[in-house]
Structures are given as structure tokens and as C-alpha cells.
Amino acid sequence: MGLRGRLFAAMYNWLIAGSEEAGLRARRAQLLASATGRVLEVGAGTGANLPFFAADVDLTVAEPEEPMARRLAKKLSEQRPKTAIVHAPAEQLPFADAQFDVVVSTLVLCTVPDQQRALRELRRVLKPGGRLLFIEHVRSDDPKVARWQDRLNGFSRATACGCNCNRATLDAIRAGGFAIASVEKSEFPKAPFFVRPLITGTAERN
Questions:
Q1: Of 66, 123, 179, 193, which is most buried, counting CB atoms within 10 Å of its CB?
Q2: Measured distance CA(150)–CA(55) in Å, rounded
């Protein structure tokens, strides 16, 4: 990650603070209350989800970008010092098959370079019947907004370190070998219109 990535990591918490306060934090808390057993969070970033995992969860976090990982490690030392951190992308996880009860992905599947490969890896490391918990901004169901997302995707990628605003992520989760157990469609609070469509839900490993 170059200078742009280091700056993005340094500014990330500030950039998303308004959205967190306007409802994203509450959405994280509600979703992650159901995480139990052995849990893996991919793309853990600066650790926004850490306060919402139960104390008895056996948590592992993965983050591939060093500037993010340094901030994550600091927060882990303060909040969950026994949590393991691995420096790995979602597309190449250093775990054997069927290791986790739950995998968590929040605002990650928009940015991974190879979304389908990442989803195959998430499915691989989940136990049979394991669950994927997700919050992701996605391609709009409104054709007009979707066309604007296509037009602005290059801008989104350039300004947000590879974040794609036009991915049909719910369809990709289904195609990746998951059955959608629950999904809520809403809006990313305080976000530009082209990244506003949001999904929150649970999928089960087929």
C-alpha cells in the first residue's frame, strides 16, 4: 500500500465517523450480537467491530494492509489482547478447511480484488452450516442510480483505495455457495448517493 493507502488508513476513522454515529455502529452491534463460537473477521480494518463481539467469542481477525493492521493491533492490545491477528487477504486465508463457526465481513466485499475468490475462501474456512455475517454497500436496485454507480466506479476506486460502488454483492454471495438466511436492505447513513445502497444479513454455508 502506497502513500495514498497510508493516508486513507490514517483518515479512515474520521471519514466514517458521521456514518457510524448516524446508525452504522448500531447496525454493527445488532448483527454481531449473534456471532458465537470460533469467529473470523476478514478485512478488520481499524477495528470498528471489536467492541461488539461477546467476551466469550474465540476471535481471529485478518487484515492484509499494513497501515490498517498497525491501527488494528493497537486497538486489539487495548480491547482484546488475546485475539489473534493474521496479515492475509480474504482471497488467501492461512487456515485449514472448516475451522470457523462464523465469518464476518463488513464493508470488505466492495474492495477485495477478486470477490468470487474471496467468497470461496470464506466458504472454505467455515464449518458445514457455518454462517457469514455481512454489512456491505452494493449496486442499487434503481437502474438510474446503478448507471451512475457504473459511471462513478472509477472515481470510487481511485479515492477509496479500490472500493467498488457497483458490485451486486448479494448475488455474488449466493453464487459463492451460500444460502441467504436473512437480509435487510437499507442505506449507508451519511454516505454519497452512489455508495448508499446497503445490505445487512446472514448467509449459511451450503
A1: 123
A2: 41
Cα radius of gyration rounded to whole Å, the chain? 16
Rounded to 5 degrees, what angle do the CA atoms 135, 140, 143 make? 170
Return the SS3 of 71: helix
Average pLDDT for residues 42-66, to the nearest whole number? 95
Spell out the domains of the chain, with CATH numbers in brackets: 3-205 (3.40.50.150)
pTM of the model: 0.95
Task: Return the percent helix, strand and coil in the chain, to nearest 5.
Answer: 40, 25, 35
Category of 204 on φ-ψ map: left (φ > 0), alpha (ψ -120 to 50) or beta = beta
Task: Give me 120's grid cell.
Answer: 470461496
Residue 28 CB: number of other CB atoms within 10 A?
22
Nearest alpha-carbon partner for 173 in 118, 129, 126, 112: 118
Residues in the chain: 206
User: Which residue type sits at 45?
Assistant: G
Question: What is the percent of the chain with per-residue pLDDT over 90, rounded to a whole number?
Answer: 87
Residue 124 and residue 105: Cα distance in Å, rounded?
15
198 pLDDT more than 80:
yes
- The set of cell numbers assigned to 16 is 466514517
Q: Could you give the 3-state DSSP secondary structure of residue 164?
A: coil
